Amino acid sequence: MLAQFEENVKWEGVEKSWADRREAWVNDCKAASSNPKVAALLLEFESNIKWASLEESWKTRKEAWEKELGSPNASQSITPKASSESSNSIIGNSNEPVTGKNVTNIILKNSSGDNFKLVKYRERDWKYSIAGFDIRGNHMLASDENSITLELQSPKELANFIFKIDFKTKKISDGKLVSAIDALEYLSANNNPVEYLEPEVVEIDDKVNGGDVKSIKLKSELLNSYFSLNKINTNEWVSEFEKIYSDDKSFFDIDRNKKDKFKQVAFDNNSITLEIIHESAITGQPSNQIKIDLKTKLTYARTYLDDEKKFSDWYKICLIMEGYDGPYEFVIIK
Q1: Spatial CB neighbours of 315, under 8 Å, sequence gap ≥ 6
Q2: DSSP secondary structure letter of residue 14
Q3: 88-92, 172-176, 205-209, 330-334, range with the lowest pLDDT
Q4: What's the CA gap between 97 and 146, in Å, rounded?
């Protein structure tokens, strides 16, 4: 009956992400053999219904309704959405009050009346979806028994938004760039269990210098991309791109098939300088260069000015995408 009920809800009344979960959820409904399991599935479906599709009176009824359904075993019976990512564990929810310490998923409402979902996927890392795109690389800055403070990356503005959610008062406050989050309203939290991923493997050799380094890899979770540089002989390097999360739909269009060749033109104890090799370049004419500071973990570029026959000044860049000014981090230097 629960699956039949879901069939009568129009597609425009549910979140876009429901399309990815629906088939597995219907199968879970068919297999549900106890009231707690059915209650958990009902809670999950309700959390995917757009706020604008519900009567205004539901706002005052929702919390009590969740408590009536929320037996300790109910939400733990939900089968999580399939993922190709290796997971560390599945964290279930209990009947205990939501705190900044135990919260794993949060549902807010935006100014358009759509649900805005935040999901924890590593110890301090959170993700959300916007317009069907998966946005990762958001971080928990602080938490206590009453609240959590999150820093979200906005792909549209390429800016950070910091705000605090108080689970006691249900208020959202303390925002940097507050105008962008004024319209967000707290709805609920800890409706579903979540999958935790294995911690990122980081190989940073702090003792390596520009003359010894042979492999460099950096990542941006917001861009869902790794960028690697590998030394293939004395003075030659090659680059390649790789998706971090294979199933995620990326907001940015990055050509991950692109591979460049570089020649190493300089190095010192702290850095290396590479010059891109263009097949059509005039023999002996300099090309654009990048510099990687192995100690500060910053990357720079300079352009060769043909008219003036000289290089521009160095300027900071992100090697993953030209013009990108968002966060990235090194995961391999060896």
Answers
A1: 300, 301, 302
A2: B
A3: 88-92
A4: 10
Full-prediction pTM beyond 0.70? no
**Cβ-proximal residues to 6 (8 Å cutoff; 6+ apart), any chain:** 22, 25, 26, 29, 45
For CA atoms 226, 105, 252, 290, the dihedral sign is negative
Q: Is 113 left (phi over 0), alpha (psi -120 to 50) or beta?
A: left
Distances (CA, A) of 155 to 68, 119, 125, 148, 232: 39, 17, 16, 22, 35
Measure the CA dihedral 215/216/217/220, to 10°: -170
Identify whether the C-beta of residue 99 lies closer than 8 Å to the C-beta of residue 167.
Answer: yes
Structure tokens at 174: 């303390």
Confidence grade of residue 25 (pLDDT, cut at 50, 70, 90): confident
Q: pLDDT tens digits, residue range 164-192? A: 899 999 888 865 544 455 567 889 999 88
Q: What distance in Å separates the CA atoms of residue 233 and residue 68, rounded to the nearest whole number?
A: 66
Pairwise CA distance, residues 332 & 116, whole Å: 34
Instruction: Name the residue among 265, 302, 262 with its Cα closest to residue 278.
Output: 262
d(CA 188, CA 51): 12
Amino acid residing at 19: A
Distance CA 99, CA 111 (A): 25
